[in-house]
Amino acid sequence: MCAKKRKPKTRRAKKPTGSLFSVLLALVIIAIIAAAIAYYFYDVGKPANNTQTIIPTTSKKTISSPQKASAKSVLEGTWVSTSDGRMLEIHGDSFSMELPSVSEHKITKGEIIITGNTATILYTNTKDKCAENPGTYTFAVSKTSIRFSVKHDNCPGRKQIFSTTWEKF
């Protein structure tokens, strides 16, 4: 009689059961830590500091009427154009405007005089007709945006730039 030969059992290699789970868990933890760091350093979600200070200068007239003061404080700050992404920064009777660009970094500076809901804008650091003649605009302010409408301006470039909506930054 012949004895039955037993087949030797082959052992299967055990697959690691938790490796995929641990990698995913590590990625989630890293993402949470990165979000917390970004939240802390960039003040995401915090209300904007709306404290505004108007410092009168000696070379210009100071704001005397309450209507001018309230209009001035409404326009103070940084605004972003909805048409081309320009940054408009208004402080007191002056402004600076910058078009973020990779190829050219150009900052336009000027004066802005507010009377009621009318703004008179004059470029001061250019040598074209935009620096010679001011433009006059009316403006309407909402909670988070401002809209300039041209009243009179001989500068076509400035007219195109300002005749749009600007969002508070």
What's the structural blueprint in terms of helices and strands?
Layout: H1 19-42, H2 66-75, E1 77-81, E2 87-91, E3 94-99, E4 106-115, E5 118-123, H3 129-132, E6 135-141, E7 145-152, H4 156-162, E8 165-168
Antiparallel strand pairs: 1-2, 1-8, 2-3, 3-4, 4-5, 5-6, 6-7, 7-8
Quick structural gist:
This protein has 169 residues and is an alpha+beta fold. Helix content is 27%, strand content 30%. The protein has 2 domains: 17-46; 66-168, Beta Barrel (Lipocalin), CATH 2.40.128.
Task: Give a structural overview.
- The protein has helices at 19-42, 66-75, 129-132, 156-162, and strands at 77-81, 87-91, 94-99, 106-115, 118-123, 135-141, 145-152, 165-168.
- It has 169 residues and is α+β, with helices and mostly antiparallel strands.
- It folds into two domains: 17-46; 66-168, Beta Barrel (Lipocalin), CATH 2.40.128.280.
- The protein has an eight-stranded antiparallel β-barrel.
- A hairpin with a 2-residue loop joins strand 4 and strand 5.
- The chain is rod-shaped.
- The model is unreliable at 44-70 (pLDDT under 50).
Q: What best-fitting shape do the alpha-carbon axes yield?
A: rod-shaped
- Portion of residues in beta strands equals 25-35%
* Main pleated sheet: 8 strands, antiparallel, barrel
End-to-end Cα distance, whole Å, is 95 Å
Strand-pairing-aware structural class: alpha+beta
Question: Roughly how much helix do the residues carry, as a percent range?
Answer: 25-40%
Number of helices: 4
Spatial sequence of strands, sheet with the most strands: 1-2-3-4-5-6-7-8
The chain-level mean pLDDT equals 76
**Rg, Cα atoms, Å:** 31 Å
Assigned CATH architecture of the largest domain: Beta Barrel
* Low-confidence spans: 44-70
- For this structure, the CATH topology of the largest domain is Lipocalin
Order of helices and strands: HHEEEEEHEEHE
The number of distinct β-strands equals 8
